[in-house]
Amino acid sequence: MAAATDDAGDSNEMIRVVSSDGEHFEMPEAAANLSLVLRHMIEDDCADAAGIPLAVVAAKPLAKIVDYCTKHAAKSSGLTIEEAEELKRFDAEFIEVDTDMLYDLLVAADFMGVEGLSKLAVQRTADLIKGKTPEQNRETFGIVNDFTPEEEEEICKENEWAFQITKPPSRLC
Amino acid sequence: MAMSNKRRKILSPSRAPELVPSELVTEILLLLPVKSLTRFRAVCRDWAALLSSEEFVSLHTAKVEAGAALAPPRLLFLTPTAGYGSTSAYSCSLSGGHDTNHLFTLDEARVNFVDSTKASCRGL
């Protein structure tokens, strides 16, 4: 974890966090500060050797989040164009995950208050569902269809144009 | 932390996707194009109500306008269909290329009766 300590802000201290399933992780303080929740805990002196317990974030997404924060904290200020591009590429690769992990990241980043990651996960989810049918969305979000078949048909009929999704949706509509 | 109780429930060990908090669902939906949103009114009553709500429409319009300021302009053109009885609307980029999109066709409406408005018509 030495990679991020060179220009990671004013403190080289490592912050420990513990996942809901008991795994320990370490990241530089500047990385932890990217999480609103962790920053508040650090400010309140809750960061000790035992680690900050994150009772609702499992090890798998937490490992990813620690990676994300470490990378972003190391490159937070005075970015050159190349570095900004590299960070963009990192983000693009970082969010190429399966849907289970995407939902974990979506919820965990929101919970931990990691704004950049939260935005990234929200955008990725939007890209994934954009071309889907209502039924596929119900599956994705675990929603029960509470329309009567007649009501559903009426909505489809009223907005027939929107249900033609054989070609990729255009940018204007 | 007042927020943790609510969140804790949402993040319970059962990992069903329905546990995505509703404010996140709204954020995701705000990024979608109108066509997807119109289609997603058929998902359930909650989504239909959300997607037609004044608040959501305003937020979405603001997002689209902010995005439009960055995107290159496109040309909108209307043309009668082969039988002259209807009107089709297309959009294309100003820089040429082959990206003309058919937007919609108005049945039984002739082109000289079709007027366009630049402002959002709250059609979302």
Automatic annotation (TrEMBL), chain A:
Coiled coil: none
GO BP of this protein: jasmonic acid mediated signaling pathway; protein ubiquitination; ubiquitin-dependent protein catabolic process
Domain SKP1 component dimerisation: 116-162
Domain of life: Eukaryota
Pathway given in the UniProt record: Protein modification; protein ubiquitination
A Pfam family this chain is assigned to: Skp1
This protein's UniProt keywords: Ubl conjugation pathway
Stretch forming the signal peptide: none
Residue ranges of every copy of the SKP1 component POZ domain listed in the record: 14-73
Family indicated by similarity: Belongs to the SKP1 family.
PANTHER family on file: SKP1
Function: Involved in ubiquitination and subsequent proteasomal degradation of target proteins. Together with CUL1, RBX1 and a F-box protein, it forms a SCF E3 ubiquitin ligase complex. The functional specificity of this complex depends on the type of F-box protein. In the SCF complex, it serves as an adapter that links the F-box protein to CUL1.
Subunit structure: Part of a SCF (SKP1-cullin-F-box) protein ligase complex.
Entry protein name: SKP1-like protein
The species this protein was found in: Oryza meyeriana var. granulata
TrEMBL record, chain B:
Domain F-box: 14-59
Superkingdom of source: Eukaryota
PROSITE patterns documented for this protein: FBOX
Gene3D superfamilies to which the protein is assigned, alphabetical: 1.20.1280.50
Name of protein: F-box domain-containing protein
